[in-house]
Amino acid sequence: MVLWVGVDDTDSLAGMCTTFLATELVRVLARDYDLIGYPRLVRLNPNIPWKTRGNGAICLRIGHGRGAPRVVGHVDEREIVSYPRGVSVANSRQVADRVAAVVRRWARFEDPTTHPGFVVLRKPAPQRLYWKGVRAVLGKGEVLRATTGLGVVQGYKQGRGVIGASAATAWRPRERTYEILTFRHPLRWGTPRGIERESVISMNGRFPSTFNNYDFENQRVTIAPHSPCPVLFGIRGDRPEDLEPAMKLIRGERPASWLLFETNQGTDDHVRPHGPVERWATVRLRGPVTEAPRDLLGGHVVVRVRGFDVTAYEPSKQFRAVVRRLIPGDQVEVVGAVRDRPRTVNLEKLRILSLARRLRKVANPLCTPCGKRSKSCGRDAGYRCVRCGQRFPESAASIVEVDSGLNPGWYEPPVGSRRHLSKPLGRLIRAIESDSSGPGLLDAQSGDPVAPLHIFDHL
What we know:
Layout (H helix, E strand, L loop, with lengths): L2 E6 L9 H12 L4 E3 L3 E4 L12 E11 L3 E6 L2 E6 L1 E3 L4 H15 L10 E5 L5 H9 L4 H8 L3 E5 L5 H10 L6 E7 L13 H10 L3 E2 L2 E2 L4 E2 L9 E7 L2 H9 L8 E7 L18 E14 L5 E5 L2 E5 L6 H6 L6 E9 L4 E11 L4 E5 L2 E2 L4 E2 L1 E2 L6 E2 L6 E2 L5 E4 L7 E3 L13 H10 L25
Parallel strand pairs: 2-6, 3-15, 18-20
Antiparallel strand pairs: 1-4, 1-8, 2-4, 3-4, 4-7, 5-6, 5-15, 8-9, 10-14, 10-15, 11-14, 12-13, 16-17, 16-19, 17-18, 19-20, 20-28, 21-27, 22-23, 24-25, 25-26
Helix pairs in contact: 1-2, 3-5, 4-5
């Protein structure tokens, strides 16, 4: 076994980033210890109201490496390597002291909403902490009880960071993606980022294993954040070996350092496969559209599904057009986060199961003797010829079926409007193509299957 180091809640909206702190930890710890496996970036419940931005924690595994090393980063003008396996570090207290020094140096203690925490554990926290942390609300007391006797647990201020730090060590990937994160020189923090759009488009075409690089619908680069944090850009993908070459294709401002993370991004781990529709959960609902969509002030669109309001917000852009075309009787499946007030499901993905017939009246019944079109007698009251008085049923009107412009299948927002954890449909399609025997379902539907053993999972 090796030591498991988890850190969370060190950043703020005004700056810093917990992933940058990972590079500082690697720089300090690599003097005497080896990195085992990939550094991990673990996203937790995106609906928690007190999160900073992406609600991400980090996890490093530290020991004395065994096996063939691989390059996973570049910090301080030198390569960072990791090993596929390792033996334990004897002095966990010494490691904890070094972690504490890095946290005290870089965490945004001055921000009233930042409450850092870290753990250094002899074995990972129980797996249930991860699943509760990514799908529900995990309490600090539960974390402290679960990690008692496992090693060092250190919180600062209110110590909320120990929750995410412990949950990050508890992640046992059933599915994983990777992200290469590049970081700016500190003198550039807070200044505009200079990334050439054409190079991002070219990289996206060269490496189809990457995803969420560029929003073609809205002509926007999506690999770079807009906050004043240390991150320059990040490229996500399914194949770790593709990410360093992809990074080198990006032109513009050059990174000062980079690190390759193993992540749960783009996996839908946050989606509950079943359970109640309760606040701060991301749920799956299947059923009929019961009320026609309506537009709200600000460009949001609300449709009612199985008794619940489902909302596509303005930032989802073109995705709202799909929601507007739904009508009562359509059978759909929605994936979204439950907002507390007003109680609504914030739409992340939509699957059309079947479509009701769209019928449109093109003409009132013709009174043949008079050669005139009849007039409506009111809703569901039929028609009457105003000249001779002859009456006609509702079914006598000329009706045509209208194309909905929709097809059964999954729909999602543009790239720039997706959440970190939300599984892009492109990943789903690639998974189906690479495994024709698979069910072709989102992970949220698959009942939490057990993934094949990965080279680093036995640590």
